[in-house]
Write a structure and sequence with these properties.
This protein has 112 residues and is α+β, with helices and mostly antiparallel strands. Helix content is 48%, strand content 15%. The chain has a four-stranded mixed beta sheet, with helices on both faces. Helix 1 packs across helix 3 and helix 2 runs parallel beside helix 4. 31% of the residues are buried.
């Protein structure tokens, strides 16, 4: 069950950052293959994002699943909107759809 404090913390991260990846581990040291793949996709697209390690915070780890109504981690949010997990990110990347989302929403480049 998602408590109000955790919900507010998640909402603050999602609304306060253009691109947020709730993941296992960090962007530098992902702790699962799916999180690593998600980081690779975002890095390849040169997208500036905030990685949030759910392993270091059990409330966030459980809460994000209730927040998005999505059962798995990682989870990608762009400009406040839930995009999906690793498989959806991979599919969208392969079709060019993910790049279009970042362009349409005018997401900052990491190298900028």
């Amino acid at each position: 069950m998602l408590d109000q404090v955790t919900k507010d913390r998640i909402s603050q991260e999602v609304s306060g950052n253009d691109v947020v990846l709730f993941m296992k581990g960090s962007a530098i040291f992902p702790q699962c293959g799916f999180s690593a793949t998600a980081v690779q996709i975002l890095s390849h697209l040169d997208v500036k994002f905030k990685g949030i390690d759910v392993l270091s915070d059990p409330a966030i780890r459980d809460g994000i699943k209730d927040y998005s109504q999505w059962p798995t981690i990682p989870q990608l949010y762009v400009k406040g909107e839930f995009v999906g997990g690793c498989d959806i990110m991979r599919e969208m990347f392969e079709t060019g759809e993910l790049q279009e989302v970042f362009e349409q929403k005018q997401v900052a480049r990491a190298s900028a």
